[in-house]
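Support request, priority: normal
Reporter: lab tech (M.K.)
Component: structure prediction queue

Hi team, I submitted a job for Holliday junction branch migration complex subunit RuvB from Streptomyces sodiiphilus yesterday, and the status page still shows it as pending. I've pasted the exact input below so you can check whether something in the sequence is tripping the parser. The sequence length should be 354 residues. Please let me know if I need to resubmit or if it's stuck on your end.
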Amino acid sequence: MTWDETAPDGGTRLVGAEADGEDRAAEAALRPKDLAEFVGQSTVREQLDLVLRAARARGATADHVLLSGAPGLGKTTLSMIIAAEMNAPIRITSGPAIQHAGDLAAILSSLTEGEVLFLDEIHRMSRPAEEMLYMAMEDYRVDVIVGKGPGATAIPLELPPFTLVGATTRAGLLPPPLRDRFGFTGHMEFYTPEELGHVIRRSAGLLEVEVTEDGAGEIAGRSRGTPRIANRLLRRVRDYAQVKADGVVTREAALRALEVYEVDERGLDRLDRAVLTALLKLFGGGPVGLSTLAVAVGEERETVEEVAEPFLVRQGLLARTPRGRVATPAAWQHLGLVPPPSPDRGGQTGLFGA
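Reply from support: The job had stalled in the queue. We restarted it manually and it finished. Here are the results:
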């Protein structure tokens, strides 16, 4: 099960990596069109460039590509670039939309030669569709079952050569037979602040927004290593600068705008800080069980575990231990609080259970 990064009021979190309708519309205008224009992911970009160049030189379709990584890092953008580099059309669908083998058969049977099929969240596809995809990827053939019971007949259907680009946020959930059929696998890493600064300046140019170097740097530092979040913050700071300032995205405008939107200097929002505050003030830094912590912040257990914790762990502010969640010294420092005098709180084992 996956959980959307939604705010308590039901809207998308400003620093959530999931895309909403506004993000999709904005991303369509801001997406790079080729690998040379794509910012970041230097290793994946170089490897993919070799794969695509070799395929073009052979006059063949490119190998199937699997892209893994957190939401918002550019997997959809890369799939579109693959199609553009191969001068081929692209068809976009997702794993949750394919719940029956017949759904997949309908899509595959309508592909043209060389077409790119982008399958987002491929790990959420149904098992019967997965098994049909094995043969389609390897032999460019599917067996369509007609009828039921003893009278059922398998009709083989030949497919034109195509390139499947699968995207997943959880590569470990893919069954090995499916994972092994991809000719190239690329893992998308989080971006550095310098790379995000480049993304922001490029997007500002496309949006016709004037942004200073330190303004772009301030937004980049709060973007959680994710271009989608960087572009979303840029649009919100642009709004603030147009209404409250002279329309230029400066560092001062970024500071004031992101204070209004409750995004602090490390990219934490209200939910992140609520989790840390409860852990430190109510439970002395832990260890505390996940369910207890969720009740303390008034959120569902899954929301805390899937939405808030990953970034807090990645930032070194929270640790998951067998005894429960524990705050790190950096968490106390970030919230400006003084930790309890005893550095060893292991004696509290079981004090705040799950």
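The beta strands are 65-68, 90-94, 116-120, 141-146, 153-158, 163-168, 184-187, 318-321, 324-327. The mean pLDDT is 84. Let us know if anything else looks off. Ticket resolved.
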